[in-house]
Amino acid sequence: MWCFMDPIGYPVPGFLQRDLFNGIIYYRHFGGEIFEDSFQFVLWDSHEPPNLSVPQVATIHITPVDDQLPKEAPGVSRHLVVKETEVAYITKKQLHFIDTESYDRELVYTITTPPFFSFSHRHLDAGKLFLVDSIPKVVKNPMALELRSFTQHAVNYMKVAYMPPMQDIGPHCRDVQFTFSVSNQHGGTLHGICFNITVLPVDNQVPEVFTNPLKVTEGGQWVISTEHILISDADTKLDNIDLSLRGLPLHGSVELNGFPLNSGGTFSWSDLHTLKVRYQHDGSEVLQDDILLEVTDGTNSAEFVLHVKVFPVNDEPPVLKADLTPVMNCSEGGEVVITSEYIFATDVDSDNLKLMFMIAREPQHGVVRRAGVRVDQFSQGDVISEAVTYKHTGGEIGMMPYSDTITLVVSDGDPGPFVNGCCYNGPNPSVPLHTSFPVYDLNITVYPVDNQPPSIAIGPMFVVDEGCSTALTINHLSATDPDTASDDLEFVLVSPPQFGYLENILPSVGFEKSNVGISIDSFQWKDMNAFHINYVQSRHLRIEPTADQFTVYATDGKQRSLEIPFSIIINPTNDEAPDFVVQNITVCEGQMKELDSSIISAVDLDIPQDPLLFSITQKPGHGLLINRGFSEDFPENKQPANPDQKHAPVHSFSMELLKTGMRLTYVHDDSESLADDFTIQLSDGKHKILKTISVEVTPVNDEKPMLSKKAEIAMNMGGTRIISSAILSAIDEDSPREKIYYVFERLPQNGQLQFKIGRDWVPLSPGMKCTQEEVDLNLLRYTHTGAMDSQNRDSFTFYLWDGDNRSPALDCQITIKDMEKGDIVILTKPLVVSKGVRGFLTTTTLLAVDGTDKPEELLYVITSPPQYGQVEYVHYPGVPITSFSQMDIAGQTVCYVHKSKVTVSSDRFRFIISNGLRTEHGVFEITLETVDRALPVVTRNKGLRLAQGAVGLLSSDLLQLTDPDTAAENLTFLLVQLPQHGQLYLWGTGLLQHNFTQQDVDSRNVAYRHSGGDSQTDCFTFMATDRTNQGFVVNGRMWEEPVLFTIQVDQLDKTAPRITLLHSPSQVGLLKNGCYGIYITSHVLKASDPDTEDDQIIFKILQGPKHGHLENTTTGEFIHEKFSQKDLNSKTVLYIINPSLEVNSDTMEFQIMDPTGNSATPQILELKWSHIEWSQTE
């Protein structure tokens, strides 16, 4: 220790406390590389003898001072060997400097001279240093950035590498250097250090080949030299290059030193260079060949093709095409093109277009022309361009064809297309090397030409009957043609006939049905010769033609004759049916009507006209036809007393007689018929026409009405009876029912006649009337008004009247049944009604009689209504009634409606029945049947969710079945498919049967236990039933298929939380209470669990801090046992530093866990802080 008394310091063996206070005691370091020192001392006081303390040791930490330069570690080579295709790491074996006062990351290498090639003055790419992490894959990558500085730490961890140049370095090794300096953090630097790199060549470049075509004459040979095959290889000497024959040429061979090479044979670049390799052509007629070769440097190889261009030699004669057409056709006087279809030749060593055809023998009946000029030779190019023709010049040849011949010689004497004065050194191609030429005869067939028109000849007059048809023959119409057969001639109509048409009765081709009746506009001479052509006189109705004609010409298909008319004579016939017109007549009852020409009219259009005869085919039903002649025996409006005596009935008459004074008359027989008719037939000798004349008879009211039915009326006293047509009915032969009147002269004594007007019945008075139609409509009735002791008969008087005629007075008798009402007898039978529906009260279930036939007077009054329903009218549902009659029961208009939901088996109501004189009491029993009509409804099907391996109850909150008319113990779930990963339990035991009830669910006796597997879902399917009806309702729809109940299984958390962040917190803050604390947050301590939320990740404190305590900033409470990750996230965990302790660190041990008990290994959290005090020198 040194004591510094200004300005000199000296070592001391001891010192006083005040020396420390005065700051004059110092420790002085001697400067060695020792960084820790200590001294031992003893304290004593001023007593005698002094009190001594135990020995104390003071430790001194020396802060090192970096005053050393980096040194190269022993054994370092500073040399790297790398292949040119690879990347080499720079490791500690090649580059390693050390500094005892600096860390490796503080030793920095700086590249002062980038890598360069030794012994080279050119600025070439010599590679580069790069950082390994700068590229995705450690291979040669031109995108890697060149590294200019790095640390020893990077070298230690193989982060620095050398990349050779991207270009190939050639076949030899290359030496690369770079210089660098190394420095520490205090600036100590070593300069000019050299690093050597040897780059080894790699034979990885494929030889490159460039070729020039080899030129050779047909059948010749030529040397293959380096002028034809140029080879270069960046990393191989040419003397080490070999070539091999991969495929033999198709039209020659490759020779080495005069010997042919087989496929796979090899030769060197030196053989190529010294002209030892040749190509020999095989003499075939091809213009090119290919040699497939492979070049290799021993490691890499490439295939290429040497093209051979062959110059031909004219040594082959022309050859005619094998499938030429032997005969060429030409029309008389015509010209036809000689195409390559008839003459064509090929020459393997000559241009086919320049082959010459020389005419050795001229044709006898024509000439050969090219472009319209006669020639004796032409080229094949002329033939292909269709410039050569044969023209027939022999004139008319008659009807038969004949032949002509051209003899041709084919020559290839012209020079070929491959002659080139600069490079062709073969034989003269203008001189063929062959001696023979092919000779060919071209045959020509000349056909005659049809150029003469036909002529027509007309025969005797053609006659046909009106409306008939007659065959047209060659005697009437014929044609001739000197150069065409008659069967090939055709007649064509220019204008058709006016009153008929021509037909061909032959069927069409492919059909069997005749074409009779189909008009034609042309026909063949041969069809007319076979009598198949007819003229049909079709237009003759309403007209009388006497002649017809058509215009026709003949043709042979090319030529046609002159147009000539063909006349037809038509003989008239009785072909017209006469026109017959009749009119209907009207006649008064018992009168007559003359049938003049305005009623009966007939005309015959035939020329000459035919006699017309009328006959009565159907006589009148209520009269007769007579001929009145010229007599005036009685006027038309008076009926004769007996017309049959003076005038006989007419049965037939002629038109001539009708026109010359005959008076045909219809006489009615005075019957009550309103209509009559008769039928007249008209005939002209051939045609017959029927016409019916309808007679409308105007009636005359001359008949008296009479009573057709009168029945006696029998009824009860005080009753009412409808007087219908079953009691009174009148008829009148000439008056309708609405015109027949009942006129009442005397009315009943003990009752009333009443007529219905609208809804009211109005009493009738004497002299009033009603019609038979109103009686038919039940609008008249009799009502008895007499007392009990009155007479038992009544009557009224009336007569019938039709407006003109009346009948004698008539009486209608009425019998009154005077019966007294007896005792009331009640017959009842229980009414069976299903619950919730209605039942009708009928005479089978409730009947009361009192000896009379008046059920409407038997009145029921309900004294005690039913308890579980009500009695109501059918037509007024929902409205209860208290009284009804026996007539209502007979009409089934009263019913009982069950309304209560109470389950009972019967109901009843009490009543009093009265007929006006007597009264009886009764009880009506009702049996209620229980009928299950409603379908069960699945109102809840929410599914179950539980933990893995747990048990869950199937409560009514999850599964519920309801039915308004079925008890819960009868509502049954029928299981179709059981759970696959668990089991259903009923009353604590496994479910043995495949069903349970809603009561079991309501009683919480149905449960599901999961089997504990890894499945996350399970299910079972069920069908619901109320044990009565088929089906059940789900979501408002009827369902008969199984329904799914889903079970969701939550997997247990088996994964323990893990620490993702654990740092030592050191940031101290001053609190409001003056204390210091450190917040423990998620920035320094963090745990995660994929299956657990942050508030459930618990940090359990195994050993708390020793020099402080933990506190919750939100609640202010001490944290002794645990805190959560959520507390760390919300910055609520605070470590309070104990101010009384001079410490600057603390620790606590904890363990993290989740709610399921999964826990991680214990961890220690270390807290560090600095304690700084400032002292002021006195």
SSE diagram, text form:
Blueprint: E1 2-5, E2 8-11, H1 17-21, E3 25-26, E4 36-41, E5 56-61, E6 71-72, E7 79-83, E8 88-89, E9 97-98, E10 108-117, E11 128-131, E12 149-151, H2 152-156, E13 160-163, E14 174-183, E15 189-200, E16 208-211, E17 214-217, E18 221-224, E19 229-232, E20 242-247, E21 252-256, E22 259-260, E23 266-268, H3 269-273, E24 277-281, E25 288-296, E26 301-311, E27 319-320, E28 327-331, E29 335-337, E30 345-346, E31 356-361, E32 366-370, E33 373-374, E34 377-379, H4 380-384, E35 388-392, E36 402-411, E37 439-447, E38 455-458, E39 462-465, E40 469-471, E41 477-480, E42 490-495, E43 501-504, E44 522-524, H5 525-529, E45 533-536, E46 547-555, E47 564-571, E48 579-582, E49 585-588, E50 592-594, E51 600-603, E52 613-618, E53 623-627, H6 643-646, E54 652-654, H7 655-659, E55 664-668, E56 675-683, E57 688-698, E58 706-710, E59 713-716, E60 720-722, E61 728-731, E62 741-746, E63 751-757, E64 760-763, E65 769-771, H8 772-776, E66 780-784, E67 793-801, E68 810-817, E69 825-828, E70 831-834, E71 838-840, E72 846-849, ...
Parallel strand pairs: 7-15, 17-26, 28-37, 39-47, 49-57, 59-68, 70-78, 79-89, 80-91
Antiparallel strand pairs: 1-2, 1-3, 4-5, 6-9, 8-13, 10-12, 10-14, 11-13, 14-15, 16-19, 18-24, 20-23, 20-25, 21-22, 21-24, 25-26, 27-30, 29-35, 31-34, 31-36, 32-33, 32-35, 36-37, 38-41, 40-45, 42-44, 42-46, 43-45, 46-47, 48-51, 50-55, 52-54, 52-56, 53-55, 56-57, 58-61, 60-66, 62-65, 62-67, 63-64, ...
